[in-house]
Amino acid sequence: MPVPAQQAADDLAAALRAAGVEFDDSPLTRALYSSDASLYRVVPSAVVKARSADDVIAAREVARELRVPVTMRGAGTSIAGNAVGSGIVVDTRRFNRILDIDPAARTARVEPGVVHADLQRAAAAHGLRFGPDPSSHSRWPGGGL
Q1: Is 12 helix (H, G, I), strand (E, B) or coil?
Q2: Which of 4, 17, 49, 77 has the lowest CB atom count within 10 Å?
Q3: What does the alpha-carbon distance between residue 129 and residue 122 come to, in Å, rounded to a whole number?
Q4: Can you point out the beta strands (E) in 70-117?
């Protein structure tokens, strides 16, 4: 027999709280994270505001245990709906460091919340440029490059 929706939401909140993960399951936050730059609207059950890789791992473990989907999200500028999901949305905007730029290999290692414009500025010092130049590049996490 399926678990009623409110019980499932309560179980998820209790598990995230027990895991020590910062999350928000208020109606306002859930509504704010229900859309990205696409036409899709999917209200999540909770939003984890990850502060560290340990938070991401803990949220994933809770999701696995409760069989809840996980959606990773930077700034929500996706135009294909890949920043929205019905389960746990993990906000990675705090993961915004450029880890390494290797001019010889023409590569960059970045965290998923790096803003594209910041990466472009750092790469320009090495004569490099990464990825497309969307109008939202000043807000777009370029971690997927």
Answers
A1: helix
A2: 4
A3: 9
A4: 70-73, 88-91, 98-102, 107-110
Q: pTM of the entire structure?
A: 0.80
Contact 59, 85 (CB under 8 A): no
pLDDT in tens, 95-114: 999 999 999 999 999 998 88
What is the torsion angle, in degrees rounded to the nearest 10, for the CA atoms of residue 55, residue 58, residue 62 and residue 63?
70
pLDDT score for 137: 53
Domains of the chain (ranges; CATH) run 5-91 (3.30.43.10), 95-145 (no CATH)
Q: Which of 26, 34, 47 is nearest to 83 (CA)?
A: 34
Task: Find the helix or strand (DSSP H, E) in which 60 lies.
Answer: helix 53-66
